[in-house]
Design brief:
GO terms for molecular function: lipid-linked peptidoglycan transporter activity; peptidoglycan glycosyltransferase activity. Belongs to the SEDS family. FtsW subfamily. Its EC number is 2.4.99.28. It is a multi-pass membrane protein. The chain is mostly helical. It has a three-stranded antiparallel sheet. 41% of the residues are buried. It has one domain. The N and C termini lie far apart (47 Å). It contains twelve helices and three strands. The model has no long low-confidence stretch (mean pLDDT 90).
Length: 331
């Protein structure tokens, strides 16, 4: 029932967002970034943020638990797209233009890690670096920053016992199937039960208290169990088609000099592809276990609403790509 309500709210929100022209998002991107930062601070306040499984990532509202990290992802995409439109030459030609957005990225990352939300931090950093790379930053600059962030990530895993435990457990979950490898072994059992065509909708056994977080982090495992290999490949192809289309529109927008729209298309594509890769890879044992939703599939109001609104923005932008580029201030 909650998910049905979220679907209605998300659809209504997306319909409203679709009516707003892209120029509005370009001009107000910095406002959404400030709102996202404020929410990330508020969620850390004791008594305000809701703690679940040791992580304080949600702000309880009337009908939904707001997850600021989802707002931060969308805000960062819009802000970076606007920044890259205004400072495209500076980003390509100097360290200054490249470092400025990295400062914003650092602030968001620190706030996300304080929750802690390592998965969202990885997606945010990956999306931002991907957008900067596609904007044409110098390869040497990009490589130095990417290697630096990678080393920081490795250090955070190595010096955090629970993250290191997860990393070691996913390599051989059957070595400790009732403790550190419990989630992954149960997920793999779900895949095994699905076989070619699945056990049928609603017939999953693993979601009956065997597989933790079956409706959120491991929803793809249940999908694989109920629809089998055929259903799993089908869902993967749908995501590939959506992401490919977004990248196609990014190139199309760039060809008609609509750089803001081009960067937004690319940012949404990068964000979705990162989440899909991590969520599906984690469920199949290709990546360490990490709490991350599968876009538009996992239960969760914040993720569903934000994702549909981003897609509504992208859909509205497809209407604008055949029109002349309006004059927008570079500063």
């Amino acid at each position: 029932m909650k998910h049905a309500i979220y679907l209605c709210v998300a659809t209504l929100a997306a319909a409203l967002v679709y009516q707003i022209p892209p120029r509005f998002w370009d001009g107000t991107s910095w406002i959404w970034l400030l709102i996202a930062i404020a929410l990330l601070v508020v969620v850390l306040i004791p008594g305000v943020g809701r703690e679940v499984n040791g992580a304080q990532r949600w702000i309880p509202l009337v009908i939904v638990n707001l997850q600021p990290s989802e707002v931060a992802k969308a805000a960062l995409v819009l802000f970076l797209a606007s920044y890259l439109r205004r400072r495209e030459d500076e980003v390509r030609e100097s360290w200054t233009g490249f470092i400025k957005p990295l400062v914003i990225l650092g602030i968001l990352s620190v706030l996300l890690l304080l929750e802690p939300d390592f998965g969202a931090t990885v997606i945010v950093c990956g999306t931002a670096l991907g957008m900067l790379f596609l904007a044409g930053v110098r390869l040497m600059q990009f490589t130095i920053v990417a290697l630096g962030l990678a080393l920081i990530g490795v250090g955070m895993v190595a010096f955090a016992p629970y993250r290191l435990q997860r990393f070691l457990a996913y390599q051989d979950p059957w070595a400790d199937p009732f403790n550190t490898g419990f989630q992954l072994t149960q997920s793999l059992i779900a895949f095994g039960r699905g076989e070619l065509a699945g056990v049928g909708f609603g017939q999953s056994v693993q979601k009956l208290f065997y597989l933790p977080e079956a409706h959120t982090d491991f929803v793809f495992s249940i999908w694989a169990e109920e629809t089998g290999f055929i259903g799993s490949i089908g869902l993967l192809l749908v995501f590939i088609a959506l992401i490919s289309r977004l990248l196609w529109w990014s190139r199309r927008a760039l060809s008609v000099q609509r750089t803001f729209e081009s960067h937004v298309f690319a940012g949404i594509a990068l964000m979705l592809s990162g989440q899909v890769f991590v969520s599906m890879g984690m469920s199949m044992g290709l990546l360490p276990t990490k709490g991350l939703t599968l876009p538009m599939i996992s239960f969760g109001g914040s993720s569903l609403i934000v994702t549909l609104c981003l897609l509504a923005i992208a859909l509205r932008m497809t209407r604008e790509c055949d029109k002349p580029e309006p004059r927008r201030p570079k500063s």
